[in-house]
Amino acid sequence: MGAACALPRKVTTSKASKRAQVVVHASAGLHVVDRRTLLVGSVMASMMIQASPAKALDVGAKAPDFALPGTGGGATVELSNILQENDFAVVYFFNQAGSPGCTIESQRFEAAIPAFKAKNTRVVGISMDTLEKQDEFCTGKGLKSFTILSDNDGSVSAAYGADLKIPLLGRFSDRQTFLIKKDGTIVGHWLERDQSMASVKTTAHVDQILAAIA
Predict the structure, then answer these.
(1) pLDDT per residue over 16-30, tens digit each?
(2) What is the CATH number of domain 64-212?
(3) What reactions does this protein catalyze (predicted)?
């Protein structure tokens, strides 16, 4: 007769701790999970399900013009002026200045600025952070080769469909990148949430943008 299946070990707890714990069955046996951990996980999952990103613009659409204050002095940066002076514009929206993922993403763009300039392309980043916060972000993370803009009221993010509302956490720019050619037409569009955007933690996303520039 074959070996008997191992039975899960019995977990014992005091009466007080039982009220604060839940036993979860798993393939490896029984696991005791704190009720607070379950509650926090449930709330976070619920918030992500309820997150309401706007419908984004897509390839072929006309990119809305914008005029936003930028880092390095607060001068207004206009998309129309960028396109007058360059063949392409890369406009990337990110969630929050200084967050780990957005820092890595921005540093990847920083490292690739010479490659974008070689293709007569200007890069700008946009989030809903204040201009002061954007300046601190650039200074602290070594972002000195391109401009980051403050969309503090969220109007430009909303115009591009890069406006993300998360219950309890607030409103943010959704991580998206637009490649816009000289006549204002969107010719490339990548979103993190539909996985069309390659990883921002490596050079993969920057590489896919550069590859799309004819």
Answers:
(1) 444 444 444 444 444
(2) 3.40.30.10
(3) a hydroperoxide + [thioredoxin]-dithiol = an alcohol + [thioredoxin]-disulfide + H2O
